[in-house]
TrEMBL record:
Coiled coil: none annotated. GO terms for molecular function: dioxygenase activity. InterPro entries: DIOX_N (IPR026992), IPNS-like_FE2OG_OXY (IPR044861), IPNS-like_sf (IPR027443), Oxoglu/Fe-dep_dioxygenase_dom (IPR005123), Plant_2OG-oxidoreductases (IPR050295). This is Probable 2-oxoglutarate-dependent dioxygenase ANS. Keywords: Dioxygenase, Iron, Metal-binding, Oxidoreductase, Vitamin C. It comes from the Eukaryota. The gene is LOC107032219. Belongs to the iron/ascorbate-dependent oxidoreductase family. PANTHER family: OXOGLUTARATE/IRON-DEPENDENT DIOXYGENASE (PTHR47991).
């Protein structure tokens, strides 16, 4: 079993142990600024969204999403000790022997499972990261053969975390609606009853050449929203704002939320899905967990009528299955969100 899976990919972790970087990992556009200025990301206190100070938090949420497409949320209802457990299962999984991890390896045509970049062309630049990608909601899309049985508590902790993510995503989509004075469930309704939630554990081994290698190449997310549990000690995420890269600060027990392309469509471009990337680190490994909230591919999305007016005419088409459009555009070297826009 391990032998057939090993032909699918070579782990970056194994490469890191050789202390050499193959050229296909070199970033095509020259030297990478690994330590630019820090991005000012507002912190939104979720516990105050049901208090008399609600409007202040909604204003923070709106200003953060308008200025850089992301916010940090604090007081989200999960204990610090529980988030440490979530981080621990990730670290322990990636520290397992290769043979054990390969039990969960993805197959050639799948994203789900343990692996890294799908190699689509000879010219493709690869990311310096290994991943464990799992489908979570609706429950009938789960492939439990990919859910690690080691460490022993993995499934239990992960399941608990994802239940929290489901509730959190619903609260956030309602809060985004409230900040824009539109009907509370309008974005949730567009996600549909069978919207999907997927999770991706990311492992970034130390890299001997952080000046020319990226952990994840620049992109925007195809999701409605993305919820990121950052490494609480090691930075790495950068966001593009005003044509400049900025470092995203680490809030150890906060969660970083960014809008994805599909919410950009729903809100007629009032907030933009931020372009972001991950840089590497010569000395330290980094672990993160990203959760992607995706609308049902069978339900069409489009701009909410109330957010279309003379000042902001309709800028986006109605779309079904944005994810297919997203991957098709990427493979053609196009920016996916551009394909969703109406030419003015």
């Amino acid at each position: 079993m391990a032998e057939t899976q090993e032909t699918v990919f070579k782990s970056v972790q194994e490469l890191a142990n050789t202390n050499q970087v193959p050229e296909k990992y070199f970033y095509a556009q020259g030297s990478i600024n690994t330590h630019p200025l820090l991005l000012d990301v507002p912190q939104v206190d979720l516990s105050l969204l049901t208090s008399p100070n609600r409007q202040q938090q909604l204003n923070k949420l709106q200003s953060g999403l308008k200025s850089c497409g992301c916010i940090q949320v604090i007081n989200h209802g999960m204990e610090d000790s529980f988030l440490d457990k979530v981080r621990e299962i990730s670290k322990k999984f990636f520290a397992l022997p290769t043979e054990e991890k390969l039990k969960y390896a993805r197959t050639v045509n799948q994203i789900e499972g343990y692996g890294n970049d799908k190699v689509l062309t000879d010219k493709q630049r690869l990311d310096w990261s290994d991943r464990l990608h799992l489908n979570v909601f609706p429950e009938d899309i789960r492939e439990l053969r990919f859910w690690p049985q080691k460490p022993e508590c993995f499934r239990e902790v992960f399941e608990e975390y994802m239940k929290n993510m489901k509730l959190l995503s619903e609260s956030l989509l309602k809060a985004i609606a409230a900040s824009l004075n539109v009907e509370e469930n309008c974005f949730l309704d567009q996600c549909g009853e069978r919207g999907t939630t997927t999770a991706r554990f990311n492992f970034y081994p130390p890299c001997p050449r952080p000046d020319v290698v990226l952990g994840v190449k620049q992109h925007a997310d195809a999701s409605a929203i993305t919820i990121l549990l950052q490494d609480k000690e090691v930075e790495g995420l950068q966001v593009l704002k005003d044509d400049q890269w900025f470092r995203v600060p680490v809030v150890p027990y906060g969660l970083l939320i960014n809008v994805g392309d599909q919410v950009e469509v729903m809100i007629n471009g009032i907030f933009k899905s931020p372009v972001h990337r991950v840089v590497t680190n010569a000395e330290r490994e980094r672990n993160t967990l990203a959760v992607f909230i995706m609308p049902d591919v069978h339900v069409g999305i489009g701009p909410v009528e109330k957010l279309i007016n003379e000042e902001r005419p309709r800028g986006y088409k109605d779309i079904k299955n944005y994810v297919a459009l997203f991957f098709q555009s990427y493979q053609q070297g196009k920016i996916p969100i551009e394909a969703a826009k109406i030419s003015q």
